[in-house]
Amino acid sequence: MNSQKNHINKAMQGAMILTLAGLLTKIFSAAYRVPYQNIVGDIGFYIYQQVYPFYGMSVILATSGFPVMISKVMSDYGYGHSIKVRSKIMTITLLYLIAFGMTLSIFLYILSAPLSIFMGDIHLEPLIQLAAVSFLIVPFVSLLRGQFQADQNMNPTATSQVVEQGIRVTFILLSSYFLIREGFDLYIVGQGAILSSIIGSLAGLLILIYIWVKKGYRFSWNLTAPVSTWKVVKTLLTYSLTIGISSLLLILIQLIDALNLYSLLVNGGMEEEAAKTLKGVYDRGQPLIQLGTVVATSFALSLVPAIANAKVNNDEGFIREKLRLSLKLCFVIGAGASGGLIVLMKSINTMLFRNPSGTEVLMILSGSVLFTSICLTLFAILQGLGHTFVPAIAVLVGAGIKFIGNELLIQIFGITGAAISTLIAYMFISIIMMFYLISKGYSFRGNKSLYKIGLSLIVMLGVLFLTLEVNSYINIHSRTYSTITALIGVVIGAFFYGIAIIKFNVFTKEEMQSIPVINKIIK
């Protein structure tokens, strides 16, 4: 009993560590895009964002896809067995990941020209080729993070994420500043940004190797231990196509926009320069969506091993308790972030990106935060329960809806159609996942909680609308004033939303004591 309690406490500590690390990295991710866009402009931002999904796929697979996969494989075949068995599993996993990474890298490099033509911008070819290199780093980063996470040690993953993102951001901003100052073409500036990202990934790998050696970990080459090679490979392949695809939810939607949004605008009669600018404006929404879902993402990622362990021990009580708490947190965070962003978007847009261009489109995209939070939380829960197939199918269905939605809606509504299709895609995925969870006997049973969250949201929105109404009488439209308005709005909105959540007893005292960070404040 004490052993299980210690395991749970360790998992929750891991949740807090990854939450804080995820928060820092996503802040970096959003923060660098703001000065980057300010340096290179909307067209320069468009160029980078067209290629970023390819690089982003490698980062996500190495951060939340493959490490979770490896920890589950070790849980399936390694725990309770000899060191030789575990070393064979790690050897097979490394060989598999190297083959996987090299295949993706070569595949993307060869298809760089056809892809750039399909995207409507042949100048993107060298940037895509450069992004292909990042997949060669994925196997080694994934293996080390997966081993650490299998041991419930989240510190190395968190440290490497922060270092990787910090160096990446620094190099991107420095390279873009100097290349622009020296008068280089914006596509060259984009290449500099992708190269800087690869340098960041290498830095993350070096940190992991350093921690691996310092902690006394060793990698023993072994292919002879008594565990079926085919079973391990089959499991790795299955998890790659399920957990891997599920982890790519956000980036796949971005990838579809990169593939067909610009070309659809041009084919619809828009001038190329105008289409590039408009796509750059549309891409302002991506860091905002990432920031809105960071807590749900990090919490869900670290929850997988704990729920998986409870499933093995048939501890249904623990599973249902953490499931309800996770979903409740997800609804609170997602609804609050979506509502706040929608109301304050004009000021936030001007504060971050110098002008309010595309505010209406970004408001629609902000609604996605709630549904992405639901999706990511449910993915982690179902992975922990051993249900990995349906989440992957849901992501593919959502991606298909997004692709078709772009094709149909952009012709009618222009760039707004892309935002609507994104919102619809995330909504469908979350609905599919909720119904699937219910079909497995895990109902949320949180109707009262949803009602209370809704009331809290109304309180927050009412206060924000009143604040903006007062501000409207001050006829100032500068970026500085928008910054002040946005920051005041965020503070006021968060304060009243938090007070309402507490006053309406959305969380029980026991639940609040089990939430990382919040429990420290209570104590």
Automatic annotation (TrEMBL):
Subcellular localization: Cell membrane
Annotated membrane topology: Multi-pass membrane protein
Alphabetical keyword list: Cell membrane, Membrane, Transmembrane, Transmembrane helix
Transmembrane residue ranges: 53-73, 94-115, 127-144, 165-180, 186-213, 236-256, 288-308, 329-349, 361-382, 389-405, 411-438, 450-468, 480-502
Name used for this protein in its record: Oligosaccharide flippase family protein
Species in which this protein is naturally found: Metabacillus endolithicus
